[in-house]
Design a protein that fits this description.
By secondary structure, this protein is an all-alpha fold. Helix content is 81%, strand content 2%. Strand 1 (6-7) and strand 2 form a beta hairpin.
Amino acid sequence: MLDDVKVCGHNACDDFRMLYKLVLLVQQELIISMALVVGLTTKPTLCKKITFLFINIIVLLTGLLWLSYGSYMLHRVESRNVAFGTVVAIGILYVIVTIGGFLAFFKNKKILFYIYSILLLALVLWQVIFGLFSLESTLLVFIVLLPLTVIKILGVVFGFQLANEIVSLPPHLTYAQLPSESASACDSHK
């Protein structure tokens, strides 16, 4: 129904799709801004942890955005298109990587942070390449995908940094402990 409506020479459905993506982008930018404000007002290690969690939430929102776009394509009977399978696969993989990110954070295993960071980096590259070659509007790709890509690359960097910091912690401590709690835990094990 919206496909037949033309607004200023543009398809109304395309305008709605672009507006929907921009609203989600603004929402995600607000989340990361809040994470950085909270993180910068606390200790540096806590800043990385909080920012890592918020970036992981953004990764989850990105996956849900790709899945909702796939659902939109399915309802438009474009499921025979090759892009439909790629869109759904990207969405599902983002959700799986997000679960891995939460698991890495709460289990505090160095290898899990490394796996999360490598998978997220590969997924971001796949998303950008797919976006550049498959979506109709290159401008829309740069407006929506580029800021999200930068945020997710920051998540990759924090993932590697958190993995490297785990090595310096004694084995009986968890990464979720605050530095003041870590000192008392070290004293109690002597």
